[in-house]
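To close the chapter, one final illustration. This time we ask the reader to focus less on the individual chains and more on the assembly as a whole: which components sit near each other, and how the overall shape emerges from the parts.
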Amino acid sequence: VTDLCDLTGSELSAKLRDGEITAVALAESAIARRQALDDRVHAFLTPTPEVALERAEAFDTYLASGAPQSGVAGIPLALKDVFTTKGIRTTCGSKILENYVPPYDATAWTRLSGGGSVLVGKTNCDEFAMGSSNENSAYGPVHNPWDLDTVPGGSSGGSAAAVASGMAVWALGTDTGGSVRQPASLSGVVGLKPTYGRISRYGLIAFASSLDTVGTFTRDVRDAATLLGVMAGKDHRDATSLDADVPDYAAEIERGVEGLRIGVLAEAFGEGVEPDVAASVRAGVDRLAALGAEVGEATLPHAEYALSAYYLIAPSEASSNLARYDGVRYGLRVDGDDSIEMMFRTRGEGFGPEVKRRIMLGTYALSAGYYEAYYGQAQKVRTLILRDYAAAFERFDVLVSPTSPTTAFPIGAKVDDPMAMYLNDIFTIPANLGGVPAISVPCGLDSKGLPMGLQLTAKALDETTVFRAAAALESDLGLDPRPPLLSAA
Amino acid sequence: VNVFRDDTADPSLPHEAAMANAPAAADERFLVPKIAETGS
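The assembled structure is written out below.
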């Protein structure tokens, strides 16, 4: 059975415009899906059905007046619980912000909201977006709709699961080292990480400021282009947001890949990559070649150091960003006899183990005497990776690799082994260090019936080419991946 | 590269909204436990 909430944003937008459906009926469909499934999936931390219905009603009234319609208007959206939403609790998946109700909206949300987006809720995530399995959420893990015993990926696991299971038509996440692309891959949806600075980070609760990127979860590439078009652009509240023209992303996605130069990253098919994943990505490349792309072998010679550099840079920035949670101005306070004891207790009880691990790693890497040896070296690696990308993009328009070396793994399988967990992001981290846009697009199911993703990367601000290649592959493969959970429902 | 914008003032968060999440507040100020001994 296909309900309204199973369609794509562009399909629904057309139906709303033609008066075939109402936004209220659409919102009700997504709400009903959540009520039916979320006790098993646990994608949402704070559902907002009242907000959704109120906004949907307002939209239906507005549309009846014949006013022009944005592509996001009336469509049910979920937000990862790291975007501040005025008057709606925002936890970051952490106990330290359990009762935090932001007094302002994140710009990404403001822009979607201004376009008539219908918010259905705030989604579960790894605490402060630190994790690759969603098991670091202080509120319990998310279960992958494809197999409830496995993880949906992370850190934006709730957003990925919500879109995969129709509890939202699309969702926002954040991608600091792969936190949109990896869960998209493991959950069988499209995950976009745009160029660093393409979307304002204002109101996005900071993890690692030089890497944090707002990203999207959608059921097809066109929807990702629609969302990016609405959110992209300069925001005077975020000095790192780019003042570059915002093209009509959706206009060019059907241009095809004829003549496009596609580089296959040789190093991305080595040890640790599941054979099904490698085979499926190679098959995807063959399809792109058959569609007229020129395929060659590419390399990012310093990508092997990316993971190590990332785990110095990201924790360093996190240790500084998370210093603000001191029990004084907002968030949890655990009382103590004096202020220092109050702060020790607040942070000791408020943060979970992975967040503490990264704060300690970062504080150490930035400490006097070690700064050059760790943080300084990592920044040099980052420069080398930027040069690798520059060289690769002289020869190629798009680079291809698997998004994640594996498909979804069982809940609990890697929680005691941080290194094994960190390796999930080995193919996604380089794009964050380089600031370049990348997308994960579903490329099939493995022998266990779990989704796999193919990653396409282009040079900075060239999202258009990423969309072109991704849409060509998507259309050629003609997959319509629906988790078995939906057929059983 | 320097990027400049006009030096225009925007309205900022109302005092009350900014204080609303404070675990403890008094007289429009954040309240914390004592930070030093008061002397013996």
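The two ends of chain A are 9 Å apart (CA to CA). DSSP finds 16 helices and eleven strands in chain A. With these observations in hand, you are ready for the problems at the end of the chapter.
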